[in-house]
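Need a sequence for this fold. Nothing fancy.
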């Protein structure tokens, strides 16, 4: 029954459920802790009040988080981190991770016209990106690789100045259950200078 519900969710967001389930059949997909947490988030009171587009974005983010946690090898993780910022959005990242292995993913990248030499970062920045973390001084591209596309971007001054405020919404676990948390990131001249959450 759990697998049927999960399959319906995947179909509703336009994914090939068969590809994902068959790729990861040895991981007790239907009974995993993540699936239970995903259902809890999607069934929460706040999730019920989301618009259809916001709910779809939340479903995509939950699916992407699950797929990122299921990356099997360091070669796959390196490949994904190298191209994460090049992939346009969460949907494209999901398509990419749903493919089986680095060769299939490389063909996908070539078919989409992506360069074979992705942007490289210093070792410390790459480490932060792998942990989905951020630090003061990171370039906008590195933050986008780590956290994905922001919900909104506000520009201060000239558009090419690099002075921006990015907004993200995350769902975090609290003693009262899942709560929505807003995160604002501030950039000056294209570099992260600080952030706040509320």
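Here you go.
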């Amino acid at each position: 029954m759990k697998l049927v519900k999960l399959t319906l969710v995947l179909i509703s967001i336009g994914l090939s459920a068969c590809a994902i389930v068959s790729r990861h059949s040895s991981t007790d997909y239907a009974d995993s802790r993540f699936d239970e947490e995903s259902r809890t988030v999607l069934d929460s009171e706040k999730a019920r009040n989301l618009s259809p587009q916001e709910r779809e974005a939340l479903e995509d983010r939950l699916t992407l988080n699950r797929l990122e946690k299921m990356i099997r090898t360091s070669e796959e993780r390196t490949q994904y981190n190298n191209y994460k910022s090049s992939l346009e959005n969460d949907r494209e990242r999901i398509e990419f991770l749903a493919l089986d292995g680095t060769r299939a993913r490389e063909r996908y990248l070539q078919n989409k016209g992506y360069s074979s030499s992705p942007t490289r970062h210093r070792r410390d920045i790459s480490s932060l990106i792998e942990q989905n973390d951020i630090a003061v001084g990171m370039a906008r591209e590195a933050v986008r690789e780590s956290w994905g596309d922001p919900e909104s971007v506000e520009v201060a001054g000239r558009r090419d100045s690099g002075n921006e405020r990015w907004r993200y919404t995350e769902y975090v676990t609290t003693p009262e259950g899942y709560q929505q948390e807003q995160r604002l990131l501030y950039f000056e001249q294209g570099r992260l200078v600080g952030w706040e959450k509320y």
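For context: The CA atoms of residues 132 and 146 lie 5 Å apart.
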